[in-house]
């Protein structure tokens, strides 16, 4: 739907030199950005292997995009119209719980008309805003006021022709078309009217009769009556007499809106036409020599006006051509003067006849969209709209589909409907700005399975540190804010698998930043127990690499997660035990720092006896116990507790002698700089010695107790 190629300036390779490039062993490569729809374009070797004499030479890298990133007023336009889009789709979603035929009921059509009118009104506001000569703090306009005027005229015409008020689908369309024409293509200009009205004898001005013809053609009764009244001062009595007859006829032209029933309008229109024919008879009685004034043939000009009122199509078409008007004015006037009961379904034939003689301007996309809509060719209008603005074609298609205006091609190999093609094309344009990800996925998720897949890919790539200027400034807070926003979006669109993936990515990011508390929280939220295990390993590695104090500080951040997990049923209990171990072990070092040695000793024994501690950490715990075994005159361990320590020490020694030392000694080995299993076992001898002395103290203490008794 979008552009198929990108032109780089200056070119990476000059035209006609690509073959030369290939012969030199190079080609042009490109890689897409994971965050938006931009590309990095660069020269690369044609083969992966082999030497390249230019491999060390710096080459330019082009960063290019199929779309210009939305900025200035365009961002506001996109954001505000997406609100209407979401409400429209909320209505369509609720329609799924009703009968399939409900979407074509007056109630549904009225809602669709309402949302479409909302689009029209907002485009109008944007056009007015863009037209104001004012300083713009957010930079110059990205799209001109005339661009938004084009969108305004196209969408309002679509509403006029395809979304009339419920109950008026078969009503005459002429007055609606003329109102649309007068709003969007103002002719004649206000300045012309002001100039002519300032003259004492305006008919002497060469623009007088063209002006009077135009206001008559446009149904601008007030202006036409004003200038007809000036002709009552014209020197020709014949003209004055004719004008006295014409004025009440112009003033009394029937308007559909003034009748409660169409048959009454039709009857009044026929009577009115009879009165117009009477004017023609009177005009023919004016002698040839009396049809001129000192400036021109007033009779011919008045005859054209009467011909318009009579509804003579050749006259209307000729006058339009002479005035520089186009086919739109002819078609609109047709519904007022030629056939006042012209219906929307009959407009197609009228448009075809008029366009055959006065074709639309093929260089003007706005005009081509208008002609397609007049001709009852909505899909053709979509194709032109996509060239004018992806926004227009997407929102056209979005409304056209439930109206049944888009054909379904059963033989098409595409898995996308026509509507989805245009909406996804617009979403890809939005993807050029990664900060607009919420709006982008709103459109993508409305496009079936393919759209949901693309939306998922965007969500899992939302930059976790990308946040508005008013968001928290620290990396951790930014990540938390981004994950919160993504999670809310996933909940709204029922994308649980995506939410879990984003939580896993966030956990990895947090680990790199040593924000282990958030990392564990995200792993639990994602129910990713394997990743939880890796996070715990990273926390435990803090002990190995940075010592007990840093480990205790980092592990304290994950303590709240233990309570959360214990309150849930978790299938992977092994990871819960590892988390509990990390928290409990950090608490031991906290007790030591607080000189609560009794609690520290008790927890070491508990972690070993209940086997909360992994076997690879037994030697570390035993080494930690040395300080407590040697503590002053106070015995911190009961004999049974000391025996438990000895039991674990014996198991480690036996298993190491049997060749399984790595299962027990890997962590302790890593704490010894440049050490291995041998050095680890040497360190455990210190534990054995401390235990021997402790048991001796226990024996002496018990002997003294016996003697004293």
From TrEMBL:
InterPro entries for the chain: Nucleoporin_Nup85
Entry's Gene Ontology BP terms: mRNA export from nucleus; positive regulation of DNA-templated transcription; protein import into nucleus
GO CC terms of this entry: nuclear membrane; nuclear pore outer ring
Localization: Nucleus, Nuclear pore complex
Keywords for this protein: Membrane, mRNA transport, Nuclear pore complex, Nucleus, Protein transport, Translocation, Transport
Described purpose of this protein according to its UniProt entry: Functions as a component of the nuclear pore complex (NPC).
PANTHER family: FROUNT PROTEIN-RELATED, NUCLEAR PORE COMPLEX PROTEIN NUP85
Subunit structure, interactors included: Component of the nuclear pore complex (NPC).
Name assigned to this protein: Nuclear pore complex protein Nup85
Biological source species: Dendrothele bispora (strain CBS 962.96)
């Amino acid at each position: 739907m979008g552009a198929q190629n990108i032109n780089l300036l200056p070119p990476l390779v000059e035209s006609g030199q690509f073959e030369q490039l290939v012969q030199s062993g190079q080609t042009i490569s490109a890689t897409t950005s994971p965050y938006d729809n931009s590309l990095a374009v660069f020269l690369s070797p044609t083969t992966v292997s082999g030497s390249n004499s230019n491999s060390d030479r710096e080459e330019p890298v082009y960063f290019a995009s199929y779309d210009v990133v939305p900025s200035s007023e365009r961002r506001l336009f996109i954001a505000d119209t997406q609100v209407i889009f979401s409400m429209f789709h909320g209505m369509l979603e609720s329609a799924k719980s009703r009968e399939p035929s409900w979407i074509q009921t007056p109630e549904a059509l009225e809602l669709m008309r309402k949302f479409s009118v909302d689009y029209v009104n907002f485009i109008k506001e944007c056009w007015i805003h863009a037209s104001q000569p004012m300083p713009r703090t957010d930079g110059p306009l990205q799209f001109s006021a005339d661009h938004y005027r084009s969108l305004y005229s196209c969408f309002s015409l679509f509403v006029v022709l395809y979304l009339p008020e419920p109950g008026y689908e078969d009503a005459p369309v002429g007055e609606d078309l003329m109102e649309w024409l007068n709003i969007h293509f103002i002719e004649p200009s206000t300045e012309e009217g002001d100039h002519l009205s300032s003259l004492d004898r305006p008919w002497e001005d060469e623009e007088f009769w063209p002006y009077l013809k135009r206001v008559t053609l446009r149904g601008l009764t007030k202006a036409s009556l004003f200038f007809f009244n000036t002709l009552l001062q014209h020197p020709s009595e014949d003209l004055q007499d004719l004008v006295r007859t014409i004025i009440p006829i112009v003033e009394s032209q029937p308007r559909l809106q003034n009748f409660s029933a169409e048959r009454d309008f039709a009857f009044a229109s026929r009577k009115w036409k009879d009165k117009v024919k009477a004017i023609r008879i009177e005009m023919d009685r004016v002698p040839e020599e009396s049809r001129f004034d000192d400036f021109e043939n007033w009779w011919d000009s008045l005859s054209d006006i009467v011909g318009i009122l009579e509804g003579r199509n050749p006259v209307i078409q000729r006058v339009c051509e002479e005035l520089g008007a186009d086919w739109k004015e002819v078609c609109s006037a047709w519904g007022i003067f030629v056939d006042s009961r012209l219906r929307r379904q009959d407009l197609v034939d009228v448009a075809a006849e008029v366009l055959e003689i006065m074709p639309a301007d093929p260089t003007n996309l706005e005009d081509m969209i208008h002609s397609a809509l007049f001709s009852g060719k909505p899909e053709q209008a979509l194709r032109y709209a996509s060239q004018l603005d992806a926004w227009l074609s997407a929102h056209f298609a979005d409304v056209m589909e439930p109206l049944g205006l888009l054909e379904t091609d059963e033989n098409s190999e595409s898995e996308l409907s026509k509507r989805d093609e245009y909406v996804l094309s617009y979403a890809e344009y939005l993807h050029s700005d990664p900060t607009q990800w919420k709006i982008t996925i709103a459109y993508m998720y409305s496009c079936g399975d393919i759209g949901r897949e693309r939306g998922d890919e965007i969500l899992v790539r939302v930059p976790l540190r990308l946040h508005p200027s008013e968001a928290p400034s620290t990396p951790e807070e930014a990540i938390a804010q981004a994950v919160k926003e993504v999670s809310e979006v996933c909940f709204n669109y029922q994308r649980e698998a995506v939410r879990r993936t984003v939580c896993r990515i966030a956990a990895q990011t947090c680990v790199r930043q040593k924000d282990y508390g958030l990392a564990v929280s995200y792993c639990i939220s994602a129910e990713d127990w394997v990743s939880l295990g890796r996070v715990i390993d990273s926390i435990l590695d803090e002990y190995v690499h940075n010592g007990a104090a840093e480990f205790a500080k980092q592990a304290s951040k994950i303590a709240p997660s233990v309570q959360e997990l214990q309150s849930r049923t978790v299938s992977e209990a092994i990871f819960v035990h590892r988390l509990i171990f990390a928290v409990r072990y950090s608490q031991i070092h906290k007790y030591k720092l607080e000189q609560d040695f009794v609690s520290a000793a008790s927890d070491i024994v508990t972690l070993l006896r209940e086997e909360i501690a992994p076997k690879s950490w037994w030697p570390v715990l035993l080494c930690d116990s040395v300080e407590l075994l040697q503590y002053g005159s106070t015995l911190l361990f009961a004999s049974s507790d000391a025996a438990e320590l000895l039991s674990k020490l014996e198991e480690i020694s036996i298993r190491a002698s049997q060749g399984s030392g790595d299962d027990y000694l890997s962590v302790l080995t890593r704490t010894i700089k440049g050490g291995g299993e041998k050095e680890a076992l040497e360190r455990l001898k210190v534990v054995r010695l401390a235990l021997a002395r402790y048991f001796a103290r226990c024996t002496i203490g018990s002997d003294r107790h016996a003697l004293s008794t």
